[in-house]
Amino acid sequence: MSKTQAFLEAHGLALPIVQAPMAGSNGATLAAAVSGAGGMGSLPCAMLSAEKIREEIAAIRAATGNPFNVNFFTHAEPVPDESAQARWRESLRPYYEEMGLDPNALSNAPGRRPFDADACTLMEELRPPVVSFHFGLPDADLLRRLRAVGIRIWGCATTVAEARWLAGRGVDAVIAQGAEAGGHRGIFLTDDPVRDASSQVGTLALVPQVVDAVGEIPVIAAGGIGDGRGVLAAMVLGAAAAQVGTAFLVTPEAATSAVHREALKTATDDGTALTNLLSGRPARGLINRVMAERGPISRDAPAFPTAGSALAPLKARAEAEGRADFSSIWSGQAASLAVAEPAADVTRRLWSEAEALRGKFF
Amino acid sequence: MSKTQAFLEAHGLALPIVQAPMAGSNGATLAAAVSGAGGMGSLPCAMLSAEKIREEIAAIRAATGNPFNVNFFTHAEPVPDESAQARWRESLRPYYEEMGLDPNALSNAPGRRPFDADACTLMEELRPPVVSFHFGLPDADLLRRLRAVGIRIWGCATTVAEARWLAGRGVDAVIAQGAEAGGHRGIFLTDDPVRDASSQVGTLALVPQVVDAVGEIPVIAAGGIGDGRGVLAAMVLGAAAAQVGTAFLVTPEAATSAVHREALKTATDDGTALTNLLSGRPARGLINRVMAERGPISRDAPAFPTAGSALAPLKARAEAEGRADFSSIWSGQAASLAVAEPAADVTRRLWSEAEALRGKFF
User: Fold this and answer.
1) Is B198 on the interface with A (CB under 8 A)?
2) C-alpha distances in angstroms, A257 versus A249, A260, A286, A319, A330?
């Protein structure tokens, strides 16, 4: 456990449990609960304004003096492509007609802003202990500015090659995101939006290969970890800590939508797929109507993050009727292990189960 | 480790390492080496005649008195579909032309015979300690006949639902085959040949959910286990034993082809995909030319196991030139962890690494 001990000491944590940032389903309340319990709470900022980020970080700090993580996306903003949008919207016309909606009405799906100089300035001011990035890293000068004020940098890898790339840029930890993970795949060394889903590497195979590739840099295992068995297995594979998402989606502190919570109650191990229909990038979620009917991956989906706009009116109408037909009901493959209890309890239980298993097993 | 201990005692094994049966790449030599070292060697019989099965089992018994496993497929033989074959062959015509081969020449890809009454009679005579099945189980009366002569039955599950199905039929162990595993997915509760690849459940998520579902039945974890870290992680997740395939493909005792061995030397974590092009059923292998050019999954591939026939002449010609363009170069996602050393050494090392890690870690 020396890797874990070193990781905890370096980050001022009590427990090697990282709450995965879940844009759209998690704000300060969840992050503060996890950090307050001694784990690493995470605030996803991709869908937040600067003002909202400031408020949320203040809320975390008001709730706990413990360390927390602030997460940003680093995708390139797509060139507007009206014809791709028009084709996509046209392909969805039957759904609009079925639901009596105007396919030409403007929609307002929330965007996702990539990390930029303004966000960097905000981080320099607010100085969260850790900033983590999804889809690669920002430019070297932005990284230098963050480091200059003492912020630790975490990056996310879905392959050994991505882990090496991150290690070469001096990250303080590599999140090894196995294929079981819910939400957006962190893929960044390919720009093929429909890269074959079956080439995504499972957590049990990915973690030891990443550990071997990155030397002394601590690895945080993610994907399919739903209870203490997964946490301890991650450490046996060489990880210093475990990142958990879906297990926190069902906590009262999460901002998970009603249809999302309802879907998670009956989630099965094989009930998810990777889809690019809902945002433009592959993400793992419970299979909803549009994924089932269109197939979860399509070359017709416009570039991330714009694919969601044309679905937004359909999503809103279906959700009003209690259906997740067009919703992002992100989930990993171990949702059935999740227990609806307070996030602090989940944080402590994940580790106490791992500790108990360690004692019993060995 | 009480589950492991009980499993070892029940099966007369010294080490909780199961060599995955690998039809086409493994015969008695590999099985005997693994069994001789105290693990569970496996003889894949799907591509063998009755006479060859008899010879191979005799060879194992001549080499070791230790227990071994005999593996069969239990797919339904497809109704011959000449038009599907003709369409498939026609779609491959450009390859035939490029290579100067006659697309209308008859080809002779090896078939795969499902387990049947004749095979059952042979097993009643030969009485291997364990018979394992892929793609479900044979009919209840055949299972009864095997059990009546003291043969233990193992089944393979890719989902919790499949594990429950096997448990309900009284198997002696469930192999939980995670998505990382090389070779054919054991899928049997769906007959969709192109069931979405990304719904396949990773080992780290699958094993604990299967363990919870099957009660007292021992679970053998498979998929992405390449060294002692994976072996110990499997047990932490609740498995009684670990099944390993790719790590044995590179041993001298395996019957792995030259192009296959060569490809494994440079295998990367993300270099595989699930494909149905090569046999008609989804199987994980290193991405070769036809998978890359056609996409690894196609509704045009004829039913298992007939898809390989039209590829056989292309495969033979390419392999003669040292290329695996049309070959089944099956591999799991942890091939980079494999070490080319004798199979007995691999068997012992997998466990000694796990034991050393246990001692160091805890």
Assistant:
1) yes
2) 9, 5, 14, 9, 11
